TrEMBL record:
Entry keyword set: Flavoprotein, FMN, NAD, NADP, Nucleotide-binding, Oxidoreductase
Name assigned to this protein: NAD(P)H dehydrogenase (quinone)
Membership in a protein family: Belongs to the WrbA family.
Catalytic activity annotation: a quinone + NADH + H(+) = a quinol + NAD(+); a quinone + NADPH + H(+) = a quinol + NADP(+)
Enzyme class, first EC level, given as a word: oxidoreductase
Needed co-factor(s): FMN
DNA damage found in the keyword field: no
Originating species: Caldovatus aquaticus
Cofactor note: Binds 1 FMN per monomer.
Amino acid sequence: MARILVLYYSMYGHTERLAEAVAEGAREAGAEVVVKRVPELVPEEVARQAGAKLDQKAPVASPQELDQYDAIIVGTPTRYGRMAAQMANFWDQTGSLWARGALVGKVGSAFVSTATQHGGQETTLMGIHTMMLHHGMVQVGLPYAAAGQLRMDEITGGSPYGATTLAGTDGKRMPSENELALARWQGRHVAEIAARLAGRSAEARAAA
Ligand SMILES: Cc1cc2nc3c(=O)[nH]c(=O)nc-3n(C[C@H](O)[C@H](O)[C@H](O)COP(=O)(O)O)c2cc1C
């Protein structure tokens, strides 16, 4: 069984909802799943004035716990076409993990929320992939076998680089059923691959 961390930042709840769906999918595939947030950096009063969702229940992660998982699935809203500073700041504290190669060979995957259809989903997803590749992590996307991303009968998120949603410029659009199904698909997919890789690592250790 793979142990998976779904690690997200969400200001208004869209990425949080995708994180829940990713976790559901990974659990369906038999993984042990932990959902955590990265710390908020915006002062509480500023966040309140901006209408941020302040009742998020997921516990806050510590950078030093990342080596406890077989896979880490990272979700963030887009900020000017790249990941939120809260998520980057969290990973900027993982230098000691990088120095000892603690995440090498683990599975990484990413999901994203933007306001608009062409507002930087792919650049944000690939920025997360790049960061995790620096840690030596194996990147898993969302293959076109997850056929919901091919739909043309409705506006939808979803890309081969990872699950996505579109919040709208007023933030009123929550993830659609199709986007949630794609997020669950990604969670299952990561869990299945992580279980296979974790099994191989255990075999290698036993043989050594
Ligand atoms: C400073 C800032 C920059 C943003 N930049 C982008 C952007 O480049 N493209 C876009 O589509 N949305 C952009 N957004 C909108 C957010 O991506 C949107 O609020 C978010 O996806 C909602 O997800 P959440 O509810 O998980 O926070 C930006 C929002 C803020 C506050």
